[in-house]
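2024-03-11 09:14:02 INFO worker-7 job=invfold-0412 stage=load source=structure_tokens
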């Protein structure tokens, strides 16, 4: 094994010069296969490392304590037992309307397949006539654009016209983007087959891809031999538990600070600052729970049901000291799609820097659209955090992260705590300001209402006292 590593290093050092430039370190690394039989990092750690299992148990106990706190407090205070169902029911309100939107999105995704086969048949029919094939290609591009626009614009119009409950809206908008990205992946991967006559994906392959936990299309994926239904049930139980976990966090830590925001014309600055710092810890816990719920439990459940062998949906992002590596490791499912279908086609023409910038813009706008449609207002806090601050951190931590890995990992976690505290403060402030403040002619979807209502003031007779000055 040692001899192989020495030979690999020698080959890397002797790598040929291409186009006047030596190969970059990233290009010299042996490429990890896109799909292979692999378990998720946390699955391996939880099964083999007792320390990680202990941390998992700590989070379970915190959930139980929040449940006991909610039950006992409401029993003593109001004489009724509350297990968080009210917050869950409020978040997933109007499920019937959300289901209709999702079924429409699924119909658009399914309708794409026969249209794709029809285009391929036409491309073969006009193969010997260059002019007709060129016209057919233009019509195909317009048809693809029409399908994608119908898939995106109708849900956006429907959600913009009438607000849907937050959790239901998040679900249908995420599904909208997921289906749109899947369609693009099939076209980008198999589009050339329409002209070459190579076999197109069968409907069974396409249907499998629509629900497989990946956004990168392949005709075949590594498959497991059997479905472990016990694993499926345990993962879905984790998903349900985390939904209640977040509802408890909302009821116990967010509502007490912000539910009355906007009912009074003025609010003291100290109250706002205390609330923002009070939301830091629940914000980070929710951030970690959201990661575990979606990228581990949910995706692993579907991977198990579909016998999808590659479970590497994320890497050990929590150990990173460079933001560029963190963005790649945090969500490999979306990162692989952005890399294969946006970055790599663009990089040879626009260069690496502009291609990276464009990837960040696309990802930031998609995240912001999900939040805007879910909350019912445009407030680009996440857009600034991710698309501006996060992008700036990529070059700033590239060298320093390698030189001072421990310090930069500490700094990265500091930004996670601070950023989530801001997110869990500013969005609820705006949400309740629009709910509690009196209507105004200046109210707008794009202009934050919390900037003008309520007025944030300092305490009367407030003065600054120098802590260094000794009296």
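2024-03-11 09:14:09 INFO worker-7 stage=emit residues=471
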């Amino acid at each position: 094994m040692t001899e192989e590593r020495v030979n690999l290093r020698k080959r890397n050092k002797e790598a040929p010069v291409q186009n006047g430039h030596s190969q970059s370190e990233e290009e010299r690394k042996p490429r990890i296969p896109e799909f292979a039989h692999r378990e998720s990092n946390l699955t391996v750690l939880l099964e083999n490392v007792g320390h990680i299992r202990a941390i998992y148990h700590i989070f379970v106990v915190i959930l139980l304590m929040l449940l006991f706190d909610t039950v006992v407090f409401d029993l003593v205070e109001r004489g009724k037992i509350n297990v968080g169902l009210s917050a869950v029911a409020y978040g997933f309100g109007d499920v019937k309307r959300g289901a209709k939107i999702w079924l429409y999105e699924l119909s658009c995704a399914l309708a794409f397949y026969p249209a794709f086969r029809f285009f391929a048949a036409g491309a073969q029919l006009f193969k010997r006539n260059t002019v007709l094939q060129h016209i057919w290609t233009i019509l195909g591009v317009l048809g693809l654009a029409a399908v994608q626009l119908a898939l995106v614009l109708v849900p956006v119009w429907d959600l913009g016209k009438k607000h849907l409950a937050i959790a239901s809206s998040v679900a249908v908008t995420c599904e909208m983007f997921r289906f749109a990205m899947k369609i693009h992946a099939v076209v980008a991967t198999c589009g050339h087959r329409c002209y070459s006559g190579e076999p197109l994906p069968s409907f069974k392959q396409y249907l499998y891809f629509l629900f497989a936990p990946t956004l990168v299309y392949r005709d075949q994926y590594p498959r497991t031999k059997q479905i472990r239904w016990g694993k499926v049930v345990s993962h879905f139980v984790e998903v349900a538990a985390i939904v209640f976990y977040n509802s408890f966090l909302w009821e116990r830590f967010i509502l007490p600070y912000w539910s009355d925001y906007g009912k009074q014309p003025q609010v003291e600055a100290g109250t706002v600052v205390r609330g923002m710092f009070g939301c830091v810890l629940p914000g980070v816990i929710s951030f970690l729970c959201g990661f575990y719920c979606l990228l581990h439990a949910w995706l692993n459940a579907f991977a198990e049901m579909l016998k999808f062998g590659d479970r590497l949906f994320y890497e050990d992002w929590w150990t990173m000291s460079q933001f560029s590596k963190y963005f790649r490791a945090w969500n490999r499912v979306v990162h692989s799609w952005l890399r294969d279908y946006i970055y790599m086609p663009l990089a040879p023409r626009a260069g690496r820097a502009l291609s990276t910038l464009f990837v960040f813009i696309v990802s930031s706008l998609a995240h912001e659209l999900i939040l805007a449609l879910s909350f019912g207002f445009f407030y680009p806090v996440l857009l600034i955090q991710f698309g501006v601050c996060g992008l700036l951190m990529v070059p700033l931590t590239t060298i320093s992260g390698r030189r001072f890995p421990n310090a930069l990992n500490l700094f990265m976690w500091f930004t996670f705590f601070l950023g989530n505290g801001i997110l869990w403060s500013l969005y609820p402030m705006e949400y309740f300001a629009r709910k509690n403040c009196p209507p105004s002619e200046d109210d707008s979807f794009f202009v934050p209402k919390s900037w003008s209502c309520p007025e944030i003031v300092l305490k009367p007779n407030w003065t600054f006292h120098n802590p260094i000055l000794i009296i």
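2024-03-11 09:14:09 INFO worker-7 stage=report msg="The longest strand covers residues 266-268."
2024-03-11 09:14:10 INFO worker-7 job finished
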